[in-house]
Backbone:
């Protein structure tokens, strides 16, 4: 079991100092590189490789949240904690073409 | 408190059926749109708007993980649970230019 807050703290301990020094723009570039690797992996990768790329995208996203002081637990609880933000249902009933 | 697994289940309940029908490629396009909104928000957004965009990127990333059967808790525990994958330390000591 790992909470979103525990993961955010783990990434904070591991990388905050370096990522603060690098700044948001440079850190976002690393996120983009990992997003590209994830795309490639979704097409051609094994399950093991996908595990790794999802972890990396999550880690870079989380470190950017740390740099700008966003609490991810607060973020997802507010937006998704009460159901789909589009239709308000637990099982989304928005039209397929709509943005949820 | 919300665990990564609880969030992944919430997103599964909310969106899996629609996202399975849409497929990985189409769902990845939504992720990219949200990544673009996050970038814009990091430049020009308020704290409230950033909370929302981080939540959206996390949600789309999570729904893609659901579509391809990746457990995000397993993913991050394996990759980051024992320290930085680059240097093995809890507080990363990789050179700044290196990919952690």
Residues:
């Amino acid at each position: 079991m790992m909470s979103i807050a525990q993961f955010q703290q783990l990434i904070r301990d591991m990388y905050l100092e370096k990522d603060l020094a690098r700044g948001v723009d440079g850190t976002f570039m690393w996120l983009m590189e990992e997003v590209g690797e994830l795309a490639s992996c979704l097409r051609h990768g094994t399950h093991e490789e996908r595990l790794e790329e999802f972890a990396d995208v999550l880690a870079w996203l989380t470190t950017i949240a740390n740099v700008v002081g966003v609490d991810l637990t607060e973020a997802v609880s507010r937006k998704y904690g009460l159901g789909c933000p589009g239709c308000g249902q637990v099982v989304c009933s928005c039209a397929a073409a709509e943005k949820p």
About this structure: The CA atoms of residues 82 and 88 of chain A lie 7 Å apart. Chain A has a mean pLDDT of 94.
